[in-house]
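Table S5 (text form). Sequence records supplied for joint modeling of the two-component complex.
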Amino acid sequence: MTAHPRMSLNQATIRHADFATALRVTRQAGIPAIGAWREPVGAVGLPAAAAMLADSGLRMSSLCRGGFFTGPDTAAALDENRRAIEETAALAAAGAAGSAPVLVLVAGGLPEGDRDLAGARNRARDAVGALAEDAAAAGVVLAIEPMHPMYAADRGVISTLAQALDIAEQFPAGRVGVVVDTFHVWWDPCLGEQIRRAGLTGRIASYQVGDWITPLPPDALLARGLPGDGHVDLASVSELVEKAGYHGDVEVEIFNEDLWRADPVRVARRAAETFDGAAGVPG
Amino acid sequence: MTAHPRMSLNQATIRHADFATALRVTRQAGIPAIGAWREPVGAVGLPAAAAMLADSGLRMSSLCRGGFFTGPDTAAALDENRRAIEETAALAAAGAAGSAPVLVLVAGGLPEGDRDLAGARNRARDAVGALAEDAAAAGVVLAIEPMHPMYAADRGVISTLAQALDIAEQFPAGRVGVVVDTFHVWWDPCLGEQIRRAGLTGRIASYQVGDWITPLPPDALLARGLPGDGHVDLASVSELVEKAGYHGDVEVEIFNEDLWRADPVRVARRAAETFDGAAGVPG
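The corresponding structure-token record, covering 566 residues in total, follows.
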């Protein structure tokens, strides 16, 4: 089997697979790249994970995820993110040519009992600033991921691409960028304008495709569908991202209970098929 | 009992009460105004509903709801909205002094199988244009309600206050305005700026307070909490709205299964208490 030459399978799509399994099923589906997660990497240890990634012949398109900056212990969060930066550098170096030293950052939500959304957003910005030099020293790009506004309270206070870019542009291009995840940003009336803006300043560090399905499942965290299963005009967004100059790997990252319960071999294959059919990514 | 002098109980908060019951429990809780819904009004018929409202001594703060413009049958949607405009005028005339002839508009979602979000948004704008003169002739204000982006696919394609204002400002102030509902817009990084903008052009036609609770309940449509029960800094938003020159009634509109199951007398009382305690509305 061969999948699309720019496709990457984000490990969250096959969440319960360990790192070895994730690498294997990705290769078996003919997918040339993987979006790695820190937890399965940590479970085997970084040196072993790097060796396994090198053996797989796969590219790494990003490491998920750093961030969670908004809680009470900023120092601990920064330390954790510095470890994630080192992991990103090591894995990108171990992956096949074209691997991307990109660390995805999720801002974090409002602390318990805290209603100061603007304050939490400022803490997220300050944390990115505190990490920018560490990332630069390691050759890593910090990629700020705006999350759907329905996660603003409990997961990610950065809600729009414009907001993420407002932060990223305070730092050199190539050091701090943004993630465009269709699931999170598809609804945004300013999407086209902000993707163009991101392109002009070279800020698109990662592009992820996922669809918005209705009705929203009982656990809204798991509301994502495979490309083509929902309401998002993925081809139009992919065209915007392409025109904005992003030509890297494109991840399929789907949080979905049904997919997590299924055989990862089949999920990887199905992700590759739907990517071909509906993601609208040029070859 | 007396509630806050500017409080209005939106009927959706006591959804299963018929119109007579809704008027009675609102009065019993000392709440001076009601946000009416078309379905319970229709169940008794407009003339009877107007007479009941007049007898109650309550103000009407708005009628919910018109809109749903994005489906295949635009002509039918417009006809339905013209009826809603007439109902709004009749009820506002019957309500106590200070009643507001405001018809709340929800845009509607994407039709089945349709991924053209921009197209649906344009249809919503065109429909408002088609109704603006009817509204003017009836002395009714059309109030466009931006809905939380999590409803963009299946309920309301107008997702931000900026978008709603972009439409409203194409028409005379006092004829087309917007609804500021904290539940829908609290997350918006541009909220302060857009409320100020709405104030400058006199566009705030309705202000509704509802809180954002976590975890998001299984049915995301029912994810709203009473003032103070969630993550929204209602006092700050109320201050912005006040400074923007809106001094009308403030509705408590909560879609919540637990509230709907409870005794409406107690719900009205509890809504009045939480409004006093957490809504931050000046007297």
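Note: Chain B has a mean pLDDT of 96.
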